[in-house]
Design brief:
This protein has nine helices and seven strands, in the order H-H-E-H-E-H-E-H-E-E-H-E-H-H-E-H. It has about 250 residues and is of the alpha/beta class. Helix 4 links the parallel strand 2 and strand 3. Helix 2 packs parallel to helix 5 and helix 3 crosses helix 9.
Length: about 250
């Protein structure tokens, strides 16, 4: 998160006017420099940025577009990738990196669609980083692909700080995460290119206002393209591909 962007976030919060003042509680706020944050030290972030730029340079030299797909656990990231693979595998030579703490379960779900899939297990880490992606790139024949999907670990916080070398970043949210998931996690939306609001068929049952979610996203990041989907049926997936420039 860049320091100069903080006033924008604070302003966005004020404009959103959530009308929760009647239940407002005292908030303990950390002052700048007060948080014990070893993982996100400036040196680590700079090193990751450098590796991300190296990854992007390598991918571009091979004519490969990379998409970083972020979102909370259960938002529908893997389902979206499966649908995108089914839609695009006749037009693109696709590979997928699947980030998870452990197991290859989701990687195997994607691989059954006939695309090369690499599982990246992070252990206790809550996000992928550019170094892990660099290692995964060494395991595939880059001359045989032109499109790479990278599914990040399920998390709406940590991945925002760690670019991987992708051309585009997607955030997938689900209406089942509640009406405030965007305003409660603004940083990941600030530099994303596309926001996918998934499981729209459940919006009424969950009492989630899709239009308000779209408004929240646009307040934080006016440039983001917002697409609604039901990844179980495939509704809206073509719109996601168009937003990424993968379909004309």
């Amino acid at each position: 998160m860049r320091k100069h962007q903080l006033p924008q976030v604070h302003s966005a919060f004020r404009r959103l006017s959530l009308n929760l003042r009647s239940v407002k509680k005292e908030v303990v706020k950390a002052e700048e420099g007060e948080v014990f944050d070893i993982e996100l030290s400036e040196d680590i972030l700079k090193a990751n940025q450098r590796l991300a730029e190296e990854n992007k340079k390598l991918l571009h030299s091979k004519g490969i577009r990379a998409i970083d797909i972020m979102g909370a656990i259960g938002s529908g990231k893997t389902s979206l990738i499966e649908k995108l693979v089914q839609l695009l595998k006749g037009k693109h030579r696709i590979a997928v990196f699947k980030g998870d703490l452990t197991t290859t379960i989701d990687a195997e779900l994607i691989a059954r669609h006939g695309v090369e899939t690499i599982a990246i297990n992070t252990g206790k880490e809550c996000h992928l980083d550019a170094n892990l992606v660099k290692k995964a790139l060494q395991k595939i024949n880059l001359s045989k692909i032109d499109l790479l999907f990278i599914e990040n670990v399920g998390n709406l916080i940590c991945p925002a700080e760690f670019p991987l070398g992708s051309d585009k970043r997607i955030v997938v949210v689900s209406v089942t995460e509640g009406p405030y998931m965007v305003v409660k996690h603004p940083f990941i939306f600030m530099e994303t290119d596309v926001v996918v609001i998934n499981k729209v068929d459940l919006a009424k049952a969950m009492g989630t206002d899709i239009k308000q979610l779209e408004k929240d996203v646009k307040t934080i990041n006016p440039k983001a393209v917002v697409v609604t989907t039901n990844c179980r049926t495939g509704e809206g997936v073509e719109d996601v591909a168009r937003a990424l420039g993968l379909l004309s």
